[in-house]
Amino acid sequence: MTWTTAERYRSYKSYSEDEKTKLRALAKKSPWRSTFHIEPETGLLNDPNGFSFFNGKWHLFYQHFPFGAVHGLKSWVHLTSSDLVHFEASGLVIYPDTRFDNAGAYSGSALPMGDTLFLMYTGNHRDEHWVRIPYQLGAVVDQKNQVTKCPEPLIYPDFSQTTDHFRDPQLFRVQNQVFLLIGAQTVDKEGKIKVYRAENDALTAWEDLGFLNFSDEKMGYMIECPNLVFVDGRSVLIFCPQGLSQAVCEYKNIYPNLFVIADEFSVSTDNRLIGAGPLQNLDDGFDCYATQAFNAPDGSAYAISWLGLPDTAYETDRFGVQGALSMVKKLSVKDGKLYQTPVESMKKLRYNERKIQLSDEGIKTDNVFELEFKLEKGTSQTLSVLTDEKNDAALRLQIDSTQLVLTRNYEKRVSHVKIEKMNIFIDKSIFEIFINDGEKVLSGRVFPNENQHLIKSEHPLTIKMWELKK
After folding, report:
1. Is 47 a catalytic residue?
2. Which of 10, 151, 223, 314 has most Cβ atoms within 10 angstroms of its Cβ?
3. Which of 42, 96, 45 is nearest to 67 (CA)?
4. Catalytic residue selected from 47, 101, 283, 427
């Protein structure tokens, strides 16, 4: 189906109950529904938003178009959790229902403010000539999870500095001050990050501090989803540059999800990340974008990503559904490296632990499992996951002591790292691979056929394996 602009931006109220019922029935036919990842009931899920801890619960939102597997008129869905694994959905809570977000409620973040949770997001406004004006909007979540929008924009665009590509506000605290990052495209069509400081306790007035300085390289033509978090005494910037030169940082996906580790964030030294290191890929897999990270009350840093990419089609599209969120990962910095590990509560899903001697004969699975193995020094291995009797694998790992070559159907991704241990999570159509307890991560979507439900290894391999609860 070809979606026109008019169809993408139909009002939510115009959809009949019969249309919604048909959408749900179509989505249920997909053979690739995951079991322990967050997916939409219908339509498209993309950026995670508002990741936070408030009122004794973990809160998470995601950007959503409920009526098809395309980017249309966006809203926010709200979820809460007690353990960062089991999430309960509250449904749509931010609709595109004001003149400031009439063309969509775009991405944003959250910050606890006393007995409320303060949300800030980009309102995508279109005028009668379809000219875009991005407003940075606010909303407040109360103790009963009721959301009330602020009546006026908190930040208006300044078209003398940036174009209409100005979005994805991220709130964070440093030394009792609240700051804000916004992804931007300058009037010279360069990707930048704007920095603001709150001028009042209500977070309704903001001082423009200029652009964030973290690299001498040009960051393509736009930066999306900037996040600054503090991990083990270091400042970690996570962001998504669009149009970045491969000479600056090598990547394979349409747009990369990158990070920089710095010593310190300082607005007194020209908004600089002091001691910023090189640009690095956050995930070496096929589908990871729009990562959102935040610091919990105890200082721990957590991150979650959209397992999807902009301007990309997926097999589930024909069932009217697209997009999923990654597992929540805890961040740490060790020996100057960023580690990402599944939260401890993921172990609650494990059952039926087995120790298996894997071979080229393979073992059968239901494509929902976690497996773990260690690679002996000086050895290599080829592991076929989601494969069939003829060893036609939807996912294949060629491993030696210095790298992993991951093949999805005919696409390849390479992760250069000394491999000692590996944990692989498979959830029907989602994989997340952790090397050396999170030193490297590779994530993505994969769509096996009905015969691809075996695991095989080229050489004998001892693995530990768990089935995972739905």
Report:
1. yes
2. 223
3. 42
4. 47
